[in-house]
Every structure is written in structure tokens, then in C-alpha cells.
Specification:
The chain is an all-alpha fold. It has helices spanning about 10-20, 35-40, 45-60, 60-75, 80-95, 100-120, 120-130, 135-145, 150-175, 180-190, 190-200, 215-220.
């Protein structure tokens, strides 16, 4: 049984469903600036993709999203509506570009809508009724998982795995990269995923911050990129 009371088999089933590439939040249409990085030559193979993603995970969007998820999860468990509202507002503002804002807000909206339609419960509906603003993707995942009694640790590591997997999928289509090399990159990033999850669980909002300036610039320059496959 998870620390929050749900059977781990049921928790795993739900997390695998919600964070699967087949869950219709449109994650496949976003690259988080990777498309521009490939065109600029920053990413040109498995090794450079791995290095880029390790930085995004540990020192950029990955860690920050993990902190938002963790704090949203805790706010739900403690029934702190004000903290959750402030969290949602901060997460919506904490993006470096218009396209990254579109990415996290659209996925958050879709995640909440589909989770409520197919997996809703009374606690989730109560939370939605008291939160009157748009919700970023990591905050939405934190809310839904907490409402279903799924432990923070399981949720956070599943979320970061899904995030990295989607980045790798974008890179595989853009470089292009074969399936075996894609899996090698995912395997190599496992320690970074675990370490980032552990840091995010321990972190407070005061620890938020990123140092991935090149990735932030990539997300801005993608807006005017001439040929694009992705929305970000």
C-alpha cells in the first residue's frame, strides 16, 4: 500500500494510464524547444540529445515542474485551497516563452478534463470547484494523483519518466534517431530522473529556479522557426 493509502497495483495502473503517450493531452505535438536546438546544430545525435536533456531535467523545466507537482500534491492532501491557488498562479507564470506557456497550460487543461471525465471522484470535484484558474500540467498531475490517494514519490517519478520519454520521442523524430539509440538515452538518463525526483520532493518553492538559458532561448526562437513539426 502506498503512504497515502492506495494499493500500489491500482496506483501503478492509473499512473501508467495518465502518463502514457496514448493519454490524449497532445504531448506528442510539443518539443520544448528541441526542434530549434536540432536545427541550430546543438543536438545532432544520441550523445548531444542526452546531454541537452540531462540539463533540462536537472537544472531546468524538469526540476521546476517536479517542484510544482510536489507542492500541489501536498496542498491537496492538506486541504489548503489558498496554497493550491497560489501554486497554480505561480506555475502558469513560471515559463520562459509563449510556446512553453501554451504547452504546459494546454496539456494541463486536457489532463484535468479527461481525468475528470474518466477517473473523477468527489475529492477531485471539490478541488476543481474551489480553483478558479487555468492549471499548468505538473500542477494538474499533482492534483489528480493526490485526489486519488496516489503517493507523491510514485507520481513524481512517473511524471519525470514520461516527460523525458516525450523529449526523447521528439528528438528521435527530429535528428532522426533509431529506436535502440532512443532507449539507450532513456536508460542513461535514469539516474538523473531519480535524482531530480528526490530533489523535487525535498524542495520548497524557494528552491525554484533554472539555469538552462540555451533551452529557454530555443523555446523562444522556435516561435519564428521557418519549418516546424512541433508546436513548441
Amino acid at each position: 500500500t502506498s503512504p497515502d493509502g492506495m494499493n500500489e497495483t491500482a496506483a501503478l495502473y492509473r499512473l501508467m494510464t495518465w502518463l502514457s503517450p496514448s493519454f490524449p493531452v497532445g504531448a506528442f505535438s510539443y518539443s520544448s524547444g528541441i526542434e530549434w536546438a536540432v536545427e541550430a546544430g546543438d543536438i545532432h545525435g544520441a550523445a548531444t540529445l542526452q546531454t541537452w536533456l540531462a540539463a533540462m531535467l536537472s537544472d531546468g523545466a524538469g526540476f521546476c515542474d517536479g517542484v510544482f507537482l510536489a507542492n500541489a500534491h501536498r496542498a491537496v492532501l492538506s486541504s489548503d485551497a489558498q496554497a493550491l491557488d497560489e501554486m497554480a498562479e505561480l506555475a502558469a507564470a513560471f515559463v520562459p516563452s509563449r510556446e512553453r506557456h501554451l504547452e504546459t497550460m494546454e496539456q494541463g487543461r486536457a489532463f484535468m478534463e479527461i481525468a475528470r471525465a474518466a477517473w473523477s471522484n468527489s475529492r477531485l470535484e471539490q478541488i476543481v470547484a474551489t480553483c478558479n484558474r487555468a492549471i499548468a500540467y505538473p500542477v494538474a498531475v499533482g492534483i489528480v494523483s493526490a485526489a486519488h490517494g496516489i503517493s507523491l514519490q510514485l507520481t513524481l517519478h512517473a511524471f519525470l519518466h514520461a516527460l523525458v520519454s516525450n523529449w526523447i520521442s521528439a528528438g528521435a523524430r527530429l535528428i532522426p534517431l533509431g529506436q535502440t539509440d532512443s532507449q539507450r538515452v532513456l536508460a542513461a538518463l535514469e539516474p538523473a530522473v531519480v535524482a531530480t525526483g528526490e530533489r523535487a520532493i525535498r524542495a520548497s518553492l524557494d528552491d525554484l529556479g533554472s539555469a538552462t538559458f540555451r533551452a529557454d532561448l530555443a523555446s523562444m526562437r522556435h516561435e519564428t522557426q521557418y519549418t516546424r513539426l512541433f508546436r513548441s
